[in-house]
Amino acid sequence: VQLQAFGGGLVQAGGSLRLSCAASGRTFSRYNVGWFRQAPGKEREFVAAIGWSEYRTDYGDSVKGRFTMSRDNAKNTAYLQMISLKPEDTAVYYCAAKLGRITGWDLDYEYWGQGTQVTVSS
């Protein structure tokens, strides 16, 4: 499966953005999808993941209560709705896909899209 992340941009602190992860291929519905982010000089961080069935979700501690992940298999797209954005949310955001169980471990993910930059100004 091929992934393309988009929707990033510049937003003021307290604002909102919605990222999209568009997938190609007919088997998107079989894949769990995760979002990760990486800020300059920092390690890649788990943000959120959603399961392929029952749409179970999981979130990183730093975004719980502010970010919501969803998916629309008919559109082969997963979403990350971000509210109450903070300057520390500034990073390149990547979407990734894997079979099996959802995890927050980036090395478990087989397929990756290119990143989309999110910049939150104070």
Descriptive report:
The protein is mainly β and 122 residues long. Helix content is 0%, strand content 50%. The chain is built from no helices and eleven strands. The protein has strands spanning 2-6, 9-12, 17-24, 32-38, 45-50, 57-59, 67-72, 77-82, 91-98, 111-112, 116-121. Strands 2, 4, 5, 6, 9, 10 and 11 form a seven-stranded mixed β-sheet that branches. The mean pLDDT is 95.
Summary, kept brief:
This protein has strands at 2-6, 9-12, 17-24, 32-38, 45-50, 57-59, 67-72, 77-82, 91-98, 111-112, 116-121.
**Count of extended strands:** 11
Radius of gyration: 13 Å
Shape: globular
Mean pLDDT: 95
End-to-end distance, in Å?
37 Å
Which bin fits the share of residues in helices? under 10%
Structural class: mainly beta
Question: What pattern of helices and strands is seen along the backbone?
Answer: EEEEEEEEEEE
Q: Which range does the strand content fall in?
A: over 45%
Helix run count: 0
Q: Report low-confidence residues grouped into runs of 5 or more.
A: none
Major beta sheet, specifics?
A: 7 strands, mixed
